[in-house]
Fold this sequence. Notes:
By secondary structure, this protein is mostly beta strands. Among the domains are: 17-158, no CATH class; 171-233, no CATH class. The protein contains two helices and 36 strands. It has helices spanning 5-16, 80-87; strands spanning 22-30, 33-42, 47-52, 56-62, 67-75, 90-97, 100-107, 133-139, 144-149, 154-159, 162-167, 172-177, 181-185, 190-195, 199-203, 208-213, 217-221, 226-231, 235-239, 244-249, 253-257, 262-267, 271-275, 280-285, 289-293, 298-303, 306-310, 315-319, 329-335, 338-342, 348-354, 362-364, 370-374, 382-389, 395-402, 405-409. It has an 18-stranded mixed beta sheet.
Amino acid sequence: MKRSPQFAGLCLLALLAPLAVAQDTHVSRMGAGWSQVTTGTLTGVKNLRVRIDVGSVAVHGAQRPGIDYSFHMLSTKASEEDARREFQSYKVNAYVRGDTAWVVGEWQGGHTMRMGPAHMTMARGQERKGFPEFVINIPRDTALVKIETGGGGVEATGITGQVDIESGGGKLRVDDIGGSVNAETGGEAIEVGTVGGDLKLETGGGNISIGSVKGKIQAETGGGNVVVLSGEQGVVIEAGGGNVEIKHCVGRVKASTGGGSINLGDINGPADVETAGGSIRLTSAKGRVGANAGAGSIELYGVPSARVETGAGGIMVKFINTAAERSDSVLETSAGDITVYIAPNVAISVRASVDLGNGHHITSDFPDLHIDSEGDQWGPRTLTAEGNLNGGGPVLKVRTTTGDICFKRAN
Length: 411
């Protein structure tokens, strides 16, 4: 059958047009102002991209064939006509292009917004006035969800694929994600439930809370606390000035904070931790532990070997045998007591000293340790202790400038 050129042109336009878009808008009175709600549907596709100048976004996955969305905006204008004019200054487009559904929100008439952690350039006072809110429901098996907002909170839940989030400033929350997650906000908290892949987080100045992650964890905050309940493939944490807590990790842990405490639970691997101005506590580790505190106490309750240093504070370490290869250990403080617990099956060679021994002591539960002192009562005295326990093994060096040293048998 011969078809006309007009028919061919219509077919081409149909192919180029956005797919399966239906949208409806309602404006109604709300208190002293006005509310606008826009709803629409899109064909379910492989990916979702959300890019808005400003506003909060919530994306929820479920067992469903397509996508529906709603967009809510408020106005304090007295008349409906003025409110509608204000609503029209923020334009929302939703469409499908290839295998990706797009939801785009843009200010019209000169309002500008830089995406990402850079701060909003919109006039001060406009950023919270009629703050837009997007809610998008998508198929659970969506492969990729990417959300960008110049400023606003973001939530993503119930998605089997990958999630990428970037907000200029707002609280982020993700949960029940099957793939990897990469989330960044210029400021405010980040909350994470369960993630099946790797997790990478960054906030300019908020707390980070992480539930259970099967992949690797990397998290950074400029000025908040970080809590990790469970990581299955290692954890790297950097906090500008807050506390760090990791309850369980299968793999290597690396954590640092500029001015807070570090509290580690059961670590099934090595750990390296550092704080400029707080204490360090660890329940157990199956690999070598490195711990450094600028000024604070350090307590390690079950490690095969350790390198520990604090500028001013006490040290307590319990040495046990684990499956990890044991190496030499060093425990050192400038001002504080050091207590060492040694399990009965640990073979170790001890070298200990107190630089300024006047008024201090070295005590031991082990007769194989020989304790001695140098100097007299009128001058500086140095205390030392040496000996091989259970036949000797990796060297344990223990040193305090001014403080007591005590060696005890571990139960």
